[in-house]
Automatic annotation (TrEMBL):
One of its GO terms (biological process) is DNA repair. Residues 473-489 have a biased composition (Basic and acidic residues). One of its GO terms (molecular function) is DNA clamp loader activity. InterPro entries: AAA+_ATPase, ATPase_AAA_core, DNA_pol3_clamp-load_cplx_C, DNA_Rep/Repair_Clamp_Loader, L24e/L24_sf, P-loop_NTPase, Rep_factorC_C, RFC_lid. It comes from Morella rubra. Gene3D superfamilies: 1.10.8.60, 1.20.272.10, 6.10.250.1270, P-loop containing nucleotide triphosphate hydrolases, Ribosomal protein L24e. Pfam families: AAA, Rep_fac_C, Ribosomal_L24e. Residues 491-503 have a biased composition (Polar residues). Residues 48-202 form the AAA+ ATPase domain. The lineage of its organism: Eukaryota, Viridiplantae, Streptophyta, Embryophyta, Tracheophyta. Belongs to the activator 1 small subunits family. This is Large ribosomal subunit protein eL24.
Length: 520
């Protein structure tokens, strides 16, 4: 007691984690996943809760949803009527046989139609006691909650269904055995959107009076990647460490590769400056960033990079292959350098940074069709001449000395006989269109979101009805124009047909001279 009084530190000096401080207590207050939340609201209103499996990525509100649902169902009897087991607890077969079974047998006075609730959070993560029970090492990727424990839990769910309900939260429902899945209603959660995370961050910032700039919030949303828990933790850590939320402070706290650095590295490679791109990669590697963090940030930068769609698809495909090889344990730095080399060899741009990037393609020696990097069949003749073909069919026809201009499926035939000219023009026009660069937060600014939050429900409903009315009028107008145009065309067609059906006027024939005709 003397030591604590002399230090002058009280319990109020310690900040409660904002994740717990601002955790919603009602199902209606949960952000995002409107379909899942509406299902849980119906359960809370009716009071008849089935056995549940809540599956989805971390930080999307699974634990918060089931805790809020339990609070609404049992009310003040929460401590007596709810048993919560986390991944840090021992959840082997002994726990199912003893602790969970004893809780299910315990009598608790509840309102009519209410049940006791057993919450198994992170049911697909491995407990340390699992390996002790089996006498072997079990990795989390191979084993979740003990298989024997899940089999025992299946029987417990059946026996005590009249008094107890079970709720399992997991990242992937595939790690829960099929018999348990068939006894539960599965509610799936998805990652939160940027607007949903931003709205919740603004609520916390207003309550805690945190100074910030919009770029800092964009950095927090970028590092969170749809995880509300991580976004709030990053916000609190940045505010506690620097007392100001900006982009630089956020990336210092989160310790992730800076997106601008990765973006510059990609730009250097695309502009032909391969050495500068590799030096940027070496800097990230020397700073201690893991290859997984580097390639994950690289993937997200490529996804939002301003480039034609076919280029983006090739980039993402090569990034996925490199990530797969890194996860297999192949040399990480070598694979990252190889990825940059593929970008540099397979793609090119003009001399300036503003030039449009073009995919390096070659033409098939027989059909004349385009061959993209990594595709086609290469044939080297005895005189060291190299031929590239789109497929084995083109190679076979080339060796048989057939003329490609006589085969209708070749590009040379279409060009010579002027076929599909309109389709080729449309394709060229599509290739030339540029897409605007999209940041992490798409479609809304801070001012727009704050304005929408301050709107009354009546104003919002009126705006929605006006928008729907405008859309209906536009559709009706388009239909009327089409109908009038069709009627005009029909009338012109009928007039043309009526003119063509009128018989031609012929001169009346006079009486034949010379009497009766015929052969004499």
């Amino acid at each position: 007691m003397a030591a604590s009084s002399s230090s002058g530190v009280t319990s109020s000096d310690y900040d409660m984690p904002w994740v717990e401080k601002y955790r919603p207590n009602k199902v209606a207050d949960i952000v995002g996943n409107e379909d899942a939340v509406s299902r849980l609201q119906v359960i809370a209103r009716d009071g008849n809760m089935p056995n549940l499996i809540l599956a989805g990525p971390p930080g999307t509100g699974k634990t918060t949803s089931i805790l809020a649902l339990a609070h609404e169902l049992v009310g003040p009897n929460y401590k007596e009527a709810v048993l919560e087991l986390n991944a840090s607890d021992d959840r082997g077969i002994d726990v199912v046989r003893n602790k969970i079974k004893m809780f299910a047998q315990k009598r608790v006075t509840l309102s009519p139609g209410r049940h006791k609730i057993v919450i198994l959070d992170e049911a697909d993560s491995c407990s340390v006691q699992v390996s002790l029970y089996f006498g072997a090492d079990i990795t989390p990727s191979n084993f979740s909650m003990t298989s024997a424990a899940q089999q025992a839990l299946r029987r417990t769910i059946e026996i005590y269904s009249n008094s107890t309900r079970f709720a399992l939260a997991c990242n992937t429902s595939a790690k829960i055995i099929e018999p348990i899945q068939s006894r539960c209603a599965i509610v799936r959660f998805s990652r939160l959107s940027d607007q949903e995370i931003l709205g919740r961050l603004l609520v916390v910032i207003e309550a805690e009076k945190v100074p910030y700039v919009p770029e800092g919030l964009e950095a927090i949303i970028f590092t969170a990647d749809g995880d509300m828990r991580q976004a709030l933790n990053n916000l609190q850590a940045t505010y506690s460490g620097f007392r100001f939320v900006n982009q630089e402070n956020v990336f210092k706290v989160c310790d992730q590769p800076h997106p601008l650095h990765v973006k510059n590295m990609v730009r250097n490679v695309l502009e032909g400056k391969f050495d500068e791109g590799c030096s940027g990669l070496k800097q990230l590697y020397d700073l201690g960033y893991s290859p997984t963090d580097i390639i994950t940030t690289l993937f997200r930068i490529i996804k939002n990079y301003d480039m034609p769609e076919y280029l983006k698809l090739e980039f993402m495909k090569e990034t996925g292959f490199a990530h797969m090889r890194i996860c297999d344990g192949v040399g990480s730095y070598l694979q990252l350098c190889g990825l940059l080399a593929k970008f540099s060899v397979g793609f090119t741009s003009g001399a300036s940074a503003s030039a449009v990037m073009v995919l390096k393609t070659e033409l098939c020696r027989f059909s004349g069709s385009k061959i993209y990097p990594g595709r086609g069949i290469r044939f080297i003749r005895s005189d060291s001449q190299v031929f590239l073909f789109a497929n084995s069919k083109c190679k076979r026809y080339f060796h048989n000395r057939l003329k490609p201009s006589k085969l209708t499926w070749t590009a040379m035939y279409r060009k010579q006989h002027k076929k599909d000219i309109a389709a080729e023009a449309v394709k060229k026009k599509r290739r030339g269109t540029k897409k605007p660069y999209s940041r992490s937060i798409v479609g809304a600014t801070l001012e727009v979101i704050q304005k929408k939050r301050a709107e009354k429900p009546e104003v919002r409903d009126a705006a929605r009805e006006a928008a729907l009315r405008e859309i209906k009028e536009r559709i009706k107008k388009t239909k009327d124009e089409k109908k009038a145009k069709k009627a005009e065309v029909m009338s012109k067609t009928q007039k043309t047909q009526s003119k063509s059906n009128v018989p031609k006027a012929t001169a009346p024939k006079g009486a034949k001279l010379g009497g009766g005709g015929g052969k004499r």
